Amino acid sequence: MTKLSRRDFIAFGAGVTATVGGLFALGQWDSREVPITRTAGDKVQLFLHIPKTGGTSLREHIMKSVKAHQIAMPERPDNIWHLQRYYSHYLNEYDYIYVRGHFAKDWTRFLTDYTDKTESITMLRDPIARFRSAYQYQTTHWATKGSYAERLLARKPENLSAAIDLFDEDHKNGTADPHFLMEFNDGMTRRLCGNKWNVPYRETTRDMLDAAKDNLDKHFKIIGVTEDYNKFLYLLKLEYGWKLNPSIRKNATKNKMDVSAKDRDQIAALNTLDIELHAHAKARADVLFNQLNTEDQANYDNFINSNAG
User: The whole model's pTM is what?
Assistant: First the structure.
């Protein structure tokens, strides 16, 4: 019998919290105006939520248009709590219209088994900004007793460069949490390439980048970047009719750490593939927006201004 670690219990608690919070965070779902329904033949929107790209804010947006019981949020589907046999339930129940999660190892399950039933959307972020945000989030919210984040903070790295030096030292000594390090080493490429999440720290390859680009091009209907977040929301609004408000921002990092030139260089060296993937995603997002007809492009300013505040 597999022995459960503290991390398993924490992940389970996070999954329960996210699901319950998703049901009730915005009030009683029965009283919401829900203009969208799904019928047989309609596709489910699968949101590949790459951590620290703005996905929590997007969840709040979606919940203004979708009933809570129509949302499936397997927080970390690679955990034992989210068995793959449940996926078919998410997609075969006509009531479900939106599935979101931090998919890593088994994201391709949807591509191979349910391509005809899903439309994928995702959002990427500048790797330097994402690294800083993810580091602050992990060391603020996940530095639980006995965790790698707690041990890292105990050595008081003065900046992000010092933290990366500790990553390298701990990896060499075998004392690091490998999954913690993977998120900071081409984490977006690892997710989007499909099945190489567990490639060891600092061993990501160009083949992974090529696969990630190919997946973005072939399998994602709408792609956004955090730097153009409002354009991403506008594309979703036009495509799915969701009620979206650009002024909503959730889970934003407060008291942001300074990022020095040395920090930027070391983060960039650790995320060379993600830097190229982000540029590719931004180019794709720009194409999607520029392909809008003249009227829709003209209405973008109205979308921003009418939801300001």
Answer: 0.80
